[in-house]
## 1
Amino acid sequence: MDGLDAIAALLVATIRAATPLALAAIGELVTEKSGVLNLGVEGMMLVGAVAAFATAVATGNLPLAILAAMVASMLVAFLFGVMTLSLMSNQVATGLALTIFGIGLSAFVGKDFIGIPITSLKPLDIPGLSDLPLIGPVLFGQDPLVYASVALTVAVGWFLHRTRAGLVIRAVGENHTAAHAIGYPVIAIRYLCVLFGGAMSGLAGAYLSLAYTPMWVENMTAGRGWIALALVVFATWKPGRALLGAYLFGGVTIVQLHAQGLGVEISSHILSMLPYLATILVLVLISRDETKIRLNAPACLGKIFRPDF
Amino acid sequence: MSPTPGTPRLDLRGLCKSFPGVLVNDRVDLSVMPGECHALLGENGAGKSTLMKIVNGVLSADAGEMWWEGQPVRVQTPSDARRLGIGMVYQHFALFESLTVAENVALGLDGAPGMEALSERIRAVSDGYGLAVSPTRHVHELSVGERQRVEIVRCLLGDPRLIILDEPTSVLTPREALALFEVLRRLQAEGRSILYISHKLDEIRALCDRASVLRGGRMIATVDPRAETARSLARMMIGAELPDLSERRTTTSEDHAPLLAVNALDMDRDDPHGTDLRDISLAVRPGEILGIAGVAGNGQNALMRALSGERLVARPEAILINGTPAGHLGPRARRDLGLAVVPEERLGQGAVPDLSLADNALLSAYRHGSLVRRGLVRRRHTHGFASRVIHAFNVIARGSESEARSLSGGNLQKFIIGREILQAPKVLVAAHPTWGVDAGSAAAIHQALVDLRDRGAAILVISQDLDELYTLSDRIAVIAAGRLSDSQPIHAVTAEDIGLLMGGLFTDHGPTGPTNDDTTMKGPGHVA
């Protein structure tokens, strides 16, 4: 049973490593589908992480902490929306500034919380099911945010392609001038999508500080926001592929960590590169059809919309 | 609430609209009766599009009233307009390329039936009016004519009582245009009103009951177009006499060597929607304009790219410029041989939208005269050159600092053609030189091309507009399915001949086209 347990441990670790990436990527995917490029994911995640942690320390109420993370990240996202959608500043520059702002703000708020322990988000424990070998811990022994990430991926995929609201979002991202001419409120729709992206980044941040490593460390996202951004592009704006990419990245990360632990005769620097290489390679391979990329990519991504008056 | 007979369906009273610094609509009155086809005429920049955006709720007026079937109304969004029964077919279609036809239609309807039900309704309407569209196809796969049908079907599903069409034939082939007219006549017979924006005067005379002329934002007159001539309408539109093209010279120049020659050019398509060129041969001699007619998408783009040097040809002697084999040369080397190109797309290919006119002039004229010295741009000379183009070709722009995108289509086209002509090219290749350009600018562009020819240049004009080719060309050839017919003197061919050739029915070589096709066409009108 030892081998099975080891595999189960590896899979559980993979899923845990992948979940924050998946959450943030799904949020950014919706934002980008509406035509807005928000490079501030990393910053929003950090703000969410520190808000969640601070609330957990202050109240001990984890659902409230998760909610606080979402609200805090949405506020930051709203700031981005005001800058880029209402004041029409450049999305790339504003997004980069947002990340830098998020790093600074979270470090400032979090300096009193360094080293404080909290009770972390508990995995589900379904008597019987959770004790099954292999599938017990993998399928029935995760914490609620893991299930939420999968459910949200499915929900977003369904929403974008099967509902009218999703169709409108895709239309706005595809051709904002035409959407405006037909009578859709382009700016308002984009605000909502930016806020959704913020909320999902908040969830991702909360997962890091409440479940993955239940503590606060400055800059604890360690580049995961950027990975999430890259996943969206490599996944050609498809939610299922973004989730797949996140799991792949998580899996290779965990495997190479184990390899380093076992003292494999390869430089640890090279091993650390593997997750990035593997993810890029696989996602490039599955999305090498150029026409499909052109069709899935929101044509107005990053472009500023100025309505006539 | 049934309006009394004689009540206009749409009645605009004293509409005013200004953008910063410009009064675009100045106290405009316009009324459209039920079942009437009403033309709105005007040059680019006369305020037609702005007026229609106000009616459609995309823009709001600064002052004035809009009455709908006897009631004052306020239309603040396109949904408001749709609820009243106003439908709009946009000139640059308001379509989403990556979405299917059904999704595009759904986006234009306020109630949202399920996709299956909607597809059924699309099929019903498209069958009913002979507007063949397939609901499941993606818009990016569709031709321009098909895209327009999607727009019209979308509009009709809202059951509009007033349909606004913004220059609907500017992108259509003659036959597609005739099919559109049939649809419009049926819609009119059903009691729907049609507001038809155009500057093609013959179309308006054939189709419309009344015509209102807008000039400089003011309503100049409302007339019966059938009682007017194309010439008198043009005069109202531009406020001056339309210049006559200078007399066509009858002397041909068979004895001169061609300045541009293409010899048995073959080129495979490089994207799935392209056309293979097969065995293309042509020759343009000094002082001659060769027109190439054809339905869009039959290889015109590929030919343009082969001629301009955007795509290279393996065999250098497939293209001879001024006698020099040039097939393997890039655009710059070909320019050095005396070639100038006016591409199809004004914004993007012909000019960079965000750059000033001076910088755009520099882009193709940088080796010309003294614009650049030792790799450094000489701003004063560049602006001087751009200003010369602006003055010589009567381009309406604030100056050489204006962004290219700020110019209307006709003015930008005049600028692009002027920029090339002032470099005194030996060979000029122009694609669709007056596409979407108003009558005044089109006449100026035609005159400029004729003048250049008379100075001894060889000119190749690719166009879908038969009237234009008849006005300009000395000889004409037809491109169909990537093959080019032999060229013939313009006075030796009728529009019917050209129509047959457009269907691919070449007599000498080339494909045998569809034989069951109805290829009869209306003869070209006689625009002054």
## 2
Amino acid sequence: MAAATLVLKDVSKSFGAVRALRSASLTVQPGSIHALVGENGAGKSTLIKIVAGVHRRDAGVFELNGQEADFGSTAESKAAGVAVIYQEPTLFPDLDVSENIFMGRQPGRSWRIDKGAMYAEAAALFQRLGVAIDPRRPAKGLSIADQQILEIAKAISLDASLLIMDEPTAALSGVEVERLFNVARQLRDEGRGIVFISHRFEEVFELCDTVTVMRDGEYVSTERIADTSVDGIVAKMVGREVSELFPKTPAEIGDVVLDVAGLTSPGLFRDVSFQVRAGEIVGLAGLVGAGRSEIARAVFGVDSYSEGSVRLGGAQIPGGNPRAAIAAGMALIPEDRRKQGLVTEGSVARNVAGVIRRGLSRFGVLTTAAENRAAGPWSAKLEVKTSALDMRAATMSGGNQQKVVIAKWLATNPSLLIIDEPTRGIDVGTKSEVHRLLSDLAGQGMAILMISSELPEVLGMADRVLVVCEGRLTADIARDDATPENVMHAATHRDGHVAGATTAGGAGPDSQEVSA
Amino acid sequence: MSTLTASPDQAPARTYPSFSRPLWSRVLLTREMAVIGLFLLVYVFSSATVENFSSPLTLYYLFLDNIPVLLIALPMTAVIITGEIDLSVASVVGLSSCLVGLLHVDAGLSMPVAIVLALLAGLACGAFNGFLVAYVGLPSLAVTIGTLALYRGIAEGLLGTAAKTDFPQSWKDLATAQLGNSSPYPVVLVPIAVLALLIAWMLHFSSFGRGIFEIGLNDEAAHFTGVDVARTKLLLFMISGVVAALAGVYYTLRYGSARGDNATGMELQVVAAVLLGGVSIFGGRGALHGVIAGVLLIGVIRSAMTLEGLTVNVTNIVIGGLLVLSVLSTSLLAGISALRSRRASGSRSGPDATAAGKRSLSS
């Protein structure tokens, strides 16, 4: 057998104090379609980015076609025969299709582009892929599926030996997925190695011949698809004891605080109904991009919704009006601290007092002193580490910033706390502090809706788990019945619970993964 | 980490100093103070060296000439702090001037009624700008360049090349009256001072003002905090419009002439003064006292150089150079403080680096 197309062995990568990869391994043979699966945060994207030349590995083996590789840029990786197809391809919209394929290496002499030759070559590529795209049309207006085909055509014209597809099917319809699969099989038969990343197990089983599972930045297993099952893979993806890590103390469950009925926003989520009771932590689980954050944003009023109603303590909350939601006793700690949670250029005091400041004015005058007086105790309660209250939030660590955001919202004394990715990107110590805090708040009777991509966090903290898949609630599982397997199953099977689900909702473009 | 679980009635475990720098440093080492200092320096220097500069009459005319710019700069400060800009203000001055002339001289309305209608027109102009920027979501630079032409066009269309000059003497005197005999201070400074105090309160001592700064720094976070971003911007553009109309009324009475081309180009003088006063064109930073000093600094330089017999061109070159220098100094200072904080944090990797890494964990 020829040398493996790609060999990664015991690769590690840290960003500051965070270890994204501990010991990741992946071996892709030529003429094979290899699935790479794992939970959000398992390190798949980081691994792919090392191969693509976006990041450099800290340690470990990285070989391409039998030769040691280390790419400092995406250009180097491309030149070595690696092509990566992202969920959202990046094309030049105003150039025509052929120019996009041959960008930077157009046929012809240095002073003239031979457009005829370029169009002919592009047409030949499309014919080979069995797709009907006019080589002369502009890239603007192509469907996502056609844009991906364009990227694949580019990869073939570069004679890439390794093709990596990072969740390529997330935005495709059934027919488009089938066409993409046919192209992938054709490339496999030509002897190229293909890595296929997907959260949809049906697709993994339909297309791939081998599967590698990753978890927490580590290699777990590699098996032939024929030798495994969905349940087997899910068990390996999750595989750890979760209850010990997250100390949720039982709290007395009271009356309904939040009552969401029939909430719909076209293209994002549809017919979402659920309740959160006092003292209850409800986990909102699902894959990144399934629509969890969008639901939370609509409930809080940051985004508006087209149908449905939100009630807090029995009173109807008008949509699209965060101020009304805040006044009614709602708080939302958003997923993106730096963009949404904080004014990073603002001081700690102004951030902590950012919501309650309306009540701090005396005779209509709001002073910095009043803000400091209000912000100090709340910062102390959360043990925010800062030398003074006028320090800019931008200078603080992620965990400290999260404490500032939490302090800001707890200061409003909310009856419902919505917290989106409570511990994303913060260190382990602060993480457990946040978990204990949430548990305590629930114990004091607060209703908490917690969105998390970390399955262990959801299972450890939540009294009840709601699962979102492609904009719909697909499961409502009590704490005692919730297992990694049934949550994962509901998160990946849109059709499992809701009959006749269409792709209309679709998975929204997953900006987090694209930008990561 | 036991305080996390502390019940609310328990005393907090730690307290924080309110400020990281001593009082003198916070007050004196600011951009605003630099502008005020420069203003005082130029003023004292001019008084000593420029003939006739120190006479009360010079100061009096300095005020009269700069009152429209000073007026408009007050709300413009708030607009620019949100990260927007209003370039249509000078055209609103012209439009309001024309309306006062038409309504009083031609239509025979009394002065108060004509003035109120002109102010309402200014409010409507501001509301139109604000609506397009805040609710339609168009960039304010493009919108107000458009309405700059639109409002000026309406003004010149209303009056053509004619000028209305038949205003009551008592009203014209009001614009130029002095506070006491041979005092250098015009009476109109009193309402302007009141307006300045009101805007200072709005900007620096109200919850609404905190929202203005937050919008300029991070409008998405402001939205998540319950700041009504669109309404705030609409309000500020409306204030900008009505104050520009007020400046138009003053302009008309001061020169006794309502013309369509009154105050042409004044919007750039206003923006220059605001930026010189330490307001960041990107939004989120600035203070009203700096802007007032900026207006006065430009006024003093103009006045002194005119007395010295230098041409307007030379004056413009000096003021333009000063503006470029002030913008340059801002980015230089920012660079130096960034460098310093990087040194201070030593070998630890910067927060941005770790944040980037943490983000990539998410997938």
